[in-house]
Amino acid sequence: MRFANATLPDGSRRDIDAKDGRITALSPSSSSAISGSDLDLGGALVLPPLVDGHIHLDKTLLGLPWVPNRATGSQVADRIEAERKVRAARSVPESETGANLVRQVLASGTLHMRSHVDIDNRLGLRNLHEILKVRERFRDLVTIEIVAFPQSGILRSPGTADLLEAAIAEGADLLGGLDPVGIDGNLDGHLDVLFGIAGKRGVGLDIHLHDGGEGGIAELLAIAARTKAAGLGGKVAVSHAFALGSVPTARAAEAADALADAGVAIMSHGPGAATIPPLLLLREHGVTVFGGSDNIRDAWSPFGNGDMLDRAMMIGYRANFRHDHELSVAYDMVTSAAARALGLADYGLRVGGPADFVAVEAGSIAEAVAARPQRKLVVKAGRVLARDGVLVA
Amino acid sequence: MRFANATLPDGSRRDIDAKDGRITALSPSSSSAISGSDLDLGGALVLPPLVDGHIHLDKTLLGLPWVPNRATGSQVADRIEAERKVRAARSVPESETGANLVRQVLASGTLHMRSHVDIDNRLGLRNLHEILKVRERFRDLVTIEIVAFPQSGILRSPGTADLLEAAIAEGADLLGGLDPVGIDGNLDGHLDVLFGIAGKRGVGLDIHLHDGGEGGIAELLAIAARTKAAGLGGKVAVSHAFALGSVPTARAAEAADALADAGVAIMSHGPGAATIPPLLLLREHGVTVFGGSDNIRDAWSPFGNGDMLDRAMMIGYRANFRHDHELSVAYDMVTSAAARALGLADYGLRVGGPADFVAVEAGSIAEAVAARPQRKLVVKAGRVLARDGVLVA
Q: What is the pTM of this model?
């Protein structure tokens, strides 16, 4: 199968040959050579698959009638409580709504994602089991990494530590954490559990950290120190890390050096009201910075759609990116940098690589981020998966 | 013409009868009564036309190949300079790119807008003349209010004061202003010119104010005091007013009282990196708060698309709106509140009102804002103007 007249991110015009799911050639296009069986991309910009570094497949209510947000306060704890009520009232299993979301993100060109899945002592492993079904169902189309996420805390939800370890045994890929101080009120206690299980099970970590200011920085530094001590560099991420955007630049730079040295990546979804970490500074200091959707139409947020070009735009908008090289950073966060953070070994547009890509009408990466055009084509393993934003299969 | 089975914002199911461009009846729907000439909306949510309270039709580069941002700094003055270079290099007149943008916003359901148009001592009234052509061209489809906008300042661009007055004589509807202190370095001097011309010509004002902190608050208070003294209440707006989001709540509340008392409205586009004014607080204190796109793919910003549901989402995201009643505020800002700020006398879904509306697939106003679905139908004066996001005419 030949996908003719693709414009690659470097601006070159190529024909993409695919066989048995791999790219077998990327040759300079010659329009005279188009044959009837070729698919002519007409110069559309071809990107590697989009990567969602932070999604909550078990939380979304996508596909259900609108559910108003009922949180009675604006703190994380208020929203945890509100979510419990939504969960108790829902009649459709998380595997169904999660599948709705996976279908939507596939159509937008996301072929790899990391999903946090709630685990606490009331839920047990129920949500994990539901999302494992989703992963199995879409296994040929999308990579889903699962993070065992203690949404209600670890110490304040007794029994959760054992459940987290059981989750790993049952198929979760990473351990999650949540505001060791803000939720559990015990930095070392929270991290002892996480790094203890991680060391024992040989898995990575992705820790939610909303705690701001100097307190949040102290938590980041503790995570970095423990990551380094445990030799887990490259396998640990902190999601949100609002604190990095709420302290003086010099202090954020110190923290960035520690994170880079330890191999701790930072995920940002381009928060609406919270402070956004200084993305360019973090990158300059060697930190892997990647993007994710975070909540999509769930008890936490009414917003979000799972479209990672839309997300890159939001990240760029919040980070005050205006120049092309800055917009390219937002793009990198939802493609290569996210692939690196997720540890995807087989990623990228190259001969021998997977024949997975997304085509959009845009003259440049910067334009693709700013205009977030509809996906003209999504190709997985050399086969057309979606066309004009609609799944084909 | 009957548009059957509309769901109105209050949740009622109605048939909309239109004749000679007006709504002649809003009767409870009875599906059995649909005739062949009716257009069945199938229960779609019908909204009044969207209103863009702040757009720059002369700045956009929409429809041209991507133009990278070349500003060498991040200050307003740097961007003014960068825009001069973009303007000098462009070969397509502003009337053409402005028309591109008008077509795009029409398709998204915006039928009323307020456009600022650059005026300075190098440009003269050139951009005004170009945008007057656009207004004339689309006069039957969209209301375009024009603000004579001194993008390079008034005092620092000698001759601009006379040009602003000439612009009003030639068809601009309001006078604009720009950071009296931050750009012109002279609060009273800047406001003397604006209120002098406004008094003489009997026009309103819409002043860009990026200046933050206590300095920006002082400018707001001066504008409020002069508005009250001049009896211009209800005809003055301040756009952006980032300062309101950068001072303690009590101080913002004091300013809100002064603005409400004077009849000064506040426009916010939901800024990406700057502080957003406390929208709910302003409304609680009686200030009219409305929304606008601001820059759309121009020398200032690569972002924006002119879709006011997308904009309402951005505003809500930045303002941390999560509950339905908050999302309804974002909706109000791009519909009724904006219509009020623009002084639109003939606005709203009611018998006797204009047969102008937008239909979307959404179960509620909150869902329409959060999900910003494609516009199923845009109707102007009882005629279908756009369908599924595409202009029909």
A: 0.97
